[in-house]
Amino acid sequence: MGIEDFGGGQGPHADVLVVTTNDVPGFRVEQVIGEVFGLTVRSRHLGSQIGAGLKSMIGGELKGLTKTLVQTRNQAMERLVEQARARGANAVLMFRFDVSEAADVGTEVCAYGTAAVIARI
Question: PANTHER family this protein is in (predicted)?
């Protein structure tokens, strides 16, 4: 199943459809491969910690931390897709993110879901 089967798309995940739903309208699940995940842990940068501390006193978005978290989530998702692709999947169903503190030194981000092979009905 190629990119054209999903109605187009671009980028590094174009050949693996990632959805938060249990199924995909217009497709049937031919094979459930199993759980896949992508994990990354990012340490905190001292400068961003100081900036965040100051910003928290006056309010507003912590743009540096937001940017870091977006990059971290993207990396976790890339690892998820790589694992799904390596196991022969063309889709990840029930996709989720989990974010937690990692031993008070950083942030752990885990992207997870169920790898599957889907086909157009």
Answer: UPF0145 PROTEIN SCO3412, UPF0145 PROTEIN YBJQ
Domain hosting residue 110, numbered range: 3-120
Tens digits of per-residue pLDDT, 30-84?
A: 999 999 999 998 776 545 555 555 555 666 776 777 788 888 899 999 999 999 9
For residues 80 and 78, give the distance between their C-alpha atoms in angstroms, rounded to a whole number. Answer: 5
Instruction: Report the C-alpha gap between 96 and 118 in whole angstroms.
Output: 19
Would the pTM count as exceeding 0.90? no
Strand partners, 29: 118
Q: Check: CB of residue 93 under 8 Å from CB of residue 51.
A: no
Overall residue count recorded for the chain in this entry: 121
- CATH number of the domain where residue 109 is located: 3.30.110.70
User: What digits encode the pLDDT tens for the residues 71-117?
Assistant: 889 999 999 999 999 999 999 999 999 988 877 777 889 999 999 99
Are the CB atoms for 99 and 109 separated by under 8 Å? yes
Cα–Cα distance for residue pair 8/116, rounded to 1 Å = 19
Measure the CA–CA gap between 99 and 89, rounded to whole angstroms.
25
